[in-house]
Request: fold
Amino acid sequence: MFDHAALISNPDFAKEYPEIFKGLADMNGATKALDNDKQLTELVKIRASQLNGCAYCVKVHINVGKQVGLEQSKIDLIAVWRDSPQFTVKEKAALALCEELTRINANFPNMEIMHETRKHFTKNELIVLISAIANINAWNRLGVGLGFTP
Reply:
C-alpha cells in the first residue's frame, strides 16, 4: 500500500518547491482576477477534485465556495448534479465541461458538450473556465500524488 505519510505536506511543498507552487498559484490568481462567477468556478473545482479523489482540494474549495456564497444545498448535491434541479442550465453546462476535461479520453472532445457550453459562455468566459479547470486538475494531481491531507 502507498504510504502518503512519507511524502511531503502541503505547507512543506510550498516552502521546498516555491517555483512549482508559484506557477500554479499565479495561474489560479489570473483566473480569479478574470472570473465574474466565483460560485460557478468553485462548483467546478469541487467537482474536479471529487473526480480526482483529492480530499484536500475538495475541503479547500467547499470552504472557499461557502465564502463566496455558494449554497450548501448545491455543495451537498454536486456529485449528482445531473439529477438535481438545484443547478441551473449554465451550471450544468460548466459541470459537464469540467467532467469532460477532467476525464479526457479517446472520444474527446465531446462536441455535444462543447456546443452546449458555448451557448452559455462567451469566448472569454470559456477561456477562464477552462483555465480554472486545468489549474484545479494540476493541483489535484499534486495533492493526490504527494498525499496532501485535509
Summary: Helices lie at 10-16, 18-34, 38-52, 55-67, 72-77, 89-102, 111-120, 123-146. The two ends are 20 Å apart (CA to CA). Residues 96 and 113 are 7 Å apart (CA to CA). The chain has one domain: 9-22+35-144.
